């Protein structure tokens, strides 16, 4: 053995033999050069086995067995059983263990039914109803046992999907008392969503109260947190939301509920106004709970954003708590917290308030988190308000134009027009451009955007203490920075922009209020009026022609405003013209000259009237002459309803006496044109 040891030591890095010997002369499985395992046959005697072993040890070679040694060429175990038989036996044992589990047969049957039901297009309606009925006979009374099994819970979800309202309520009642447990399950949590997505008030009132008292536990759970937040955000009533949010203010709010019949509020300021002594403990508990989620990078919850807003609104801007909170938000290195907050109502408002209270350095740092996100934010229901706040708060307008304008207007000249068309027509995105031109007008901020106006009023009050630059100077600088790209987009894609009502409003605002050379853009808009207003597509055409711009209300309104050269001011009762003047009438008239009679007698007759009233229109005499020679057409249009309206009147039953009965007939614009001719 000493010789063997010295030889092994001398071999150094040589590999050792894989075969290992037992006392009875058998070897364990050895790994062949092909990667397969074989069983070495029993040696005829111990002496020959030892010799081969010594040879392997010294040379490092691997001993293999040929297929012929095993008789039929298949692998064998020590007991002489083939690997295939051993695998079959293992599979059988696994199946026996599975069958020994509770409800094994029922689970197996539900899985078979689920396999059929999930292929909706392959199962006729009548057969599906039968399968659902059979599924309910199996799971009724035992749903709690099924929902915690990862494979069986899918069958229950399918049952909920195809169930009747009564059957769904039956399932919801049977699961009472387990919803908090289900929310923590990796698979069963989806069943809660299936039950709530049907918008059944009875089911909602069964499920939501089961989360009371468990908010702190669930919001920190990897699975339960998302279900809790989904319930809070999309399903819970105002009162239920208040009950869930109150649990962020201390354990006593989780243990004790408000008496029935009393108003429940989640507004922390109201709670502290009634009980000032709870301020210290409630604020500390709220901050610790929120900060715990922030540190764990669990920042996407609407409930968290609501809680953070409540905390911020009850801070004194001069206090240490305020500074600590501000630093907590800024210390989020990845920016995930700020990005997530931008897309919720409370989160967006909180970011706007942080921008308003912060210094110039703070604002720059906060907005840095939104790099490469501004375009997405511009079209969001809530996030666009942060862009509006940035316009009103950042004194460095060069920074604003570089960080925000470059993203929302586009960096690629070829695609700039696409970005602008989106901005012009999207209900939210349009505010991020037109706010600088129209301000807080009702035309730009309808009732659906009332929250935007509230936030803007709030930050305007705060910025008097935190911003130095005059608001009007800031606005003009931003308009100057934005104008070149907007005018270029109008010049390159006029037809796409004037095709919609929002697009026409966008074009009007930009051409009236933008700075720089507008001639190319004005000519492009005038070119969209070309062609015969009454033209029809050929009978063999693939699709109908789009309506001519003169036949649209928004198109006529746009042309009328541009010809007037400004907007009507109610205070002075006159048109406030822009400087330099647009002189749009002189650009439009050559384009529509050949079809001016159709314009004068059609829906856009007001456009022709605006030309006659424009002081800077150079072809007024020529236009009057053309109209006088076609006076009969004007009289007919002024006294008779258009053919399209006649058909509508014939199809509709006779209107009752009232406003509609006394409504004037004929084209009112044509009537006023006749008055101009007779004057």
UniProtKB/TrEMBL annotation:
<feature type="compositionally biased region" description="Basic and acidic residues">
    <location>
        <begin position="643"/>
        <end position="653"/>
    </location>
</feature>
<feature type="compositionally biased region" description="Basic and acidic residues">
    <location>
        <begin position="84"/>
        <end position="107"/>
    </location>
</feature>
<dbReference type="InterPro" id="IPR001313">
    <property type="entry name" value="Pumilio_RNA-bd_rpt"/>
</dbReference>
<comment type="function">
    <text>RNA-binding nucleolar protein required for pre-rRNA processing. Involved in production of 18S rRNA and assembly of small ribosomal subunit.</text>
</comment>
<keyword id="KW-0677">Repeat</keyword>
<dbReference type="InterPro" id="IPR011989">
    <property type="entry name" value="ARM-like"/>
</dbReference>
<dbReference type="GO" id="GO:0006417">
    <property type="term" value="P:regulation of translation"/>
</dbReference>
<feature type="compositionally biased region" description="Acidic residues">
    <location>
        <begin position="44"/>
        <end position="54"/>
    </location>
</feature>
<keyword id="KW-0694">RNA-binding</keyword>
<protein>
    <submittedName>
        <fullName>Armadillo-type protein</fullName>
    </submittedName>
</protein>
<feature type="region of interest" description="Disordered">
    <location>
        <begin position="1"/>
        <end position="107"/>
    </location>
</feature>
<feature type="compositionally biased region" description="Polar residues">
    <location>
        <begin position="60"/>
        <end position="83"/>
    </location>
</feature>
<dbReference type="Pfam" id="PF08144">
    <property type="entry name" value="CPL"/>
</dbReference>
<feature type="compositionally biased region" description="Low complexity">
    <location>
        <begin position="1"/>
        <end position="12"/>
    </location>
</feature>
<dbReference type="InterPro" id="IPR016024">
    <property type="entry name" value="ARM-type_fold"/>
</dbReference>
<dbReference type="InterPro" id="IPR040059">
    <property type="entry name" value="PUM3"/>
</dbReference>
<dbReference type="GO" id="GO:0005730">
    <property type="term" value="C:nucleolus"/>
</dbReference>
<dbReference type="InterPro" id="IPR012959">
    <property type="entry name" value="CPL_dom"/>
</dbReference>
<feature type="domain" description="PUM-HD">
    <location>
        <begin position="72"/>
        <end position="444"/>
    </location>
</feature>
<dbReference type="GO" id="GO:0003729">
    <property type="term" value="F:mRNA binding"/>
</dbReference>
<feature type="region of interest" description="Disordered">
    <location>
        <begin position="637"/>
        <end position="679"/>
    </location>
</feature>
<dbReference type="InterPro" id="IPR033133">
    <property type="entry name" value="PUM-HD"/>
</dbReference>
């Amino acid at each position: 053995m000493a010789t063997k040891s010295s030889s092994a030591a001398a071999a150094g890095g040589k590999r050792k033999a894989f075969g290992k010997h037992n006392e009875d002369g058998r070897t364990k499985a050895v790994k062949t050069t092909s990667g397969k395992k074989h069983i070495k046959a029993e040696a005829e005697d111990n002496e020959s086995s030892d010799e081969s072993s010594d040879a392997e040890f010294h040379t490092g070679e691997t001993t293999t067995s040929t297929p012929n040694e095993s008789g039929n060429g298949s692998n064998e175990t020590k007991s002489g059983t083939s690997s295939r038989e051993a695998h079959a036996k293992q599979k059988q044992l696994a199946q026996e263990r599975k069958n020994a589990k509770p409800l094994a047969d029922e689970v197996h049957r539900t899985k078979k039914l689920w396999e059929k039901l999930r292929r909706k297009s392959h199962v006729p309606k009548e057969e599906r109803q039968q399968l659902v009925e059979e599924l309910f006979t199996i799971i009724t009374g035992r749903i709690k046992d099924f929902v915690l099994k990862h494979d069986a819970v899918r069958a229950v979800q399918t049952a909920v999907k195809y169930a009747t309202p009564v059957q769904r309520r039956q399932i919801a009642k049977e699961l009472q008392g387990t919803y908090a447990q289900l929310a923590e399950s990796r698979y069963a949590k989806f069943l809660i969503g299936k039950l709530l997505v049907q918008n059944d008030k009875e089911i909602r009132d069964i499920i939501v109260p089961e989360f009371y008292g468990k908010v702190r536990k669930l919001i920190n759970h990897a699975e339960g947190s998302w279900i809790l937040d989904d319930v809070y955000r999309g399903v819970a009533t105002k009162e239920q939301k208040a009950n869930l949010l109150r649990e962020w203010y201390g354990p006593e709010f989780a243990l004790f509920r408000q008496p029935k019949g009393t108003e429940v509020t989640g507004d922390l300021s109201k709670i502290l106004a009634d009980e000032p002594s709870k301020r210290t403990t409630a604020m500390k508990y709220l901050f610790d709970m929120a900060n715990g989620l922030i540190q764990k990078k669990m920042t996407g919850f609407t409930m968290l954003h609501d809680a953070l807003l409540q905390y911020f609104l009850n801070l004194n801007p001069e206090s240490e708590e305020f500074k600590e909170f501000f630093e907590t938000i800024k210390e989020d290195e990845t920016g995930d917290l700020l990005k997530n907050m931008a897309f919720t109502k409370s989160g967006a408002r909180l970011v706007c308030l942080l921008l308003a209270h912060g210094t110039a350095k703070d604002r720059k740092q906060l907005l840095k988190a939104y790099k490469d996100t501004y375009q997405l934010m511009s079209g969001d229901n809530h996030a666009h308000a942060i862009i509006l706040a940035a316009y009103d708060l950042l004194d460095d307008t060069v920074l604003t134009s570089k960080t925000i304008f470059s993203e929302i207007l586009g960096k690629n000249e070829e695609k700039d027009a696409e970005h602008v068309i989106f901005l012009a027509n999207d209900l939210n995105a349009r505010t991020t451009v037109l706010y600088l031109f129209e301000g807080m007008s009702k035309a730009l901020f309808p009732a659906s955007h009332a929250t935007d106006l509230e936030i803007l009023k709030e930050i305007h009050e705060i910025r008097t203490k935190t911003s130095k630059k005059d608001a009007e100077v800031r606005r003009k600088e931003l308009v100057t920075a934005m104008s070149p790209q907007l005018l270029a987009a109008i010049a390159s894609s006029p037809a796409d922009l004037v095709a919609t009502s929002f697009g026409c409003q966008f074009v009007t605002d930009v051409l009236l209020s933008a700075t720089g050379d507008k001639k190319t853009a004005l000519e492009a808009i005038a070119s969209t009026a070309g062609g015969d207003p009454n033209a029809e597509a050929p009978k063999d055409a693939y699709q109908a022609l789009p309506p001519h711009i003169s036949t649209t209300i928004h198109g006529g309104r746009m042309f009328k405003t541009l010809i007037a050269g400004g907007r009507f001011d109610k205070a002075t009762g006159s048109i406030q013209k822009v400087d330099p003047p647009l002189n749009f009438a002189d650009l439009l008239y050559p384009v529509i000259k050949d079809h001016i009679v159709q314009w004068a007698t059609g829906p856009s007759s007001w456009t022709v009237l605006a030309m006659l009233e424009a002081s800077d229109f150079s072809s007024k005499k020529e236009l009057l002459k053309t109209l006088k020679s076609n006076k009969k057409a004007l009289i007919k249009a002024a006294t008779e309803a258009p053919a399209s309206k006649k058909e509508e009147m014939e199809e509709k039953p006779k209107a009752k006496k009232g406003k509609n009965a006394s409504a004037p007939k004929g084209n009112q614009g044509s009537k006023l044109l006749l008055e101009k001719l007779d004057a």
